[in-house]
Amino acid sequence: MDKKYNKFWLALGIILLTLILDQVIKIVVKTNMYYGQHIPVTNWFYIAFIENNGMAFGMQVMPKAVQTLMRLVFSGFILWYIWLLVKARFKTGYIVCISLIFAGAVGNVIDSIFYGAIFSQSTPMDIATFVPAGQGYADWLYGRVVDMFYFPLFEFDWPSWMPFVGGEHFIFFSPVFNLADAAISCGTIAVLLFYSHTFGESFALFKKKD
C-alpha cells in the first residue's frame, strides 16, 4: 500500500480513537456523577466532574454560540490541513500531532453543539440523564464541555512574608481538564518541541494547487 495512504489511515485511526474515548469518558462521568463530585484515585489524582462554557481548560473569549461556530470552522480547516500533509507525505510524527489537535478540538465542539440539547442539567443533587433531543438544559450550540481529570500534584501555603501571594494556598496542577484538552495540549507541545521547522515548511502547502 502507498505510504501516503498508510499515513491517512493512521491519522484517521488516531482521530476516531481519541474522539470515541473522549466521548465515552464524558458520557460515563456525566451520567454517573453529581456536579462537583470528586472521586479520589490516588492522593494526587481525582476524577472531578465539572463543566465549562469555553475552550481548553475553561477559557472563553467570545459569546458561546459564536465560539462554537468558530471552533467548527477551525476544525474544518485543520482537517483540510491534515489532508494536505498526507498528500505531501509529511513526517508521520507531525501528522500524528496535528491529528491529536484536530481530534481534541472536535471532541469539545461535540459537547458544545449537542450536550445542552440531549442531557438534563447536572447539579450537586441531580445526576444528568439523556432526554429527547431539544429538551435538555440548553439550546443547540450552548452545551457545556465536560471536564473530569484533576491532578493536584502538590500543594502548600505561601509564607506570610511573601509579597502579593503571602498566606495564599497554592495547588500545582489545579486545572480540571478532559481527554480532548489533553490531546490538544500534547499535540501542540510536541509540535513546538520537535516539529517547529516542519510546521514552518508546511506553509508552502497553501501555495500549491491541489
TrEMBL record:
Keyword vocabulary terms for this entry: Aspartyl protease, Cell membrane, Hydrolase, Lipoprotein, Membrane, Protease, Transmembrane, Transmembrane helix
Taxonomy, superkingdom: Bacteria
Gene Ontology biological process terms in this record: proteolysis
HAMAP family xrefs: LspA (MF_00161)
First-level EC class: hydrolase
Species this chain originates from: Caecibacteroides pullorum
UniProt function note: This protein specifically catalyzes the removal of signal peptides from prolipoproteins.
Reaction equations catalysed: Release of signal peptides from bacterial membrane prolipoproteins. Hydrolyzes -Xaa-Yaa-Zaa-|-(S,diacylglyceryl)Cys-, in which Xaa is hydrophobic (preferably Leu), and Yaa (Ala or Ser) and Zaa (Gly or Ala) have small, neutral side chains
GO cellular component, as recorded: plasma membrane
Protein name, UniProt field: Lipoprotein signal peptidase
GO function term, MF aspect, one: aspartic-type endopeptidase activity
Pathway in which this enzyme or protein is active: Protein modification; lipoprotein biosynthesis (signal peptide cleavage)
Active site, per annotation: D147, D181
Cellular location(s): Cell membrane
PANTHER family: LIPOPROTEIN SIGNAL PEPTIDASE (PTHR33695:SF1)
Protein EC: 3.4.23.36
Protein's membrane topology: Multi-pass membrane protein
Stated family: Belongs to the peptidase A8 family.
Transmembrane segments annotated in the record for this chain: 68-86, 93-118, 170-195
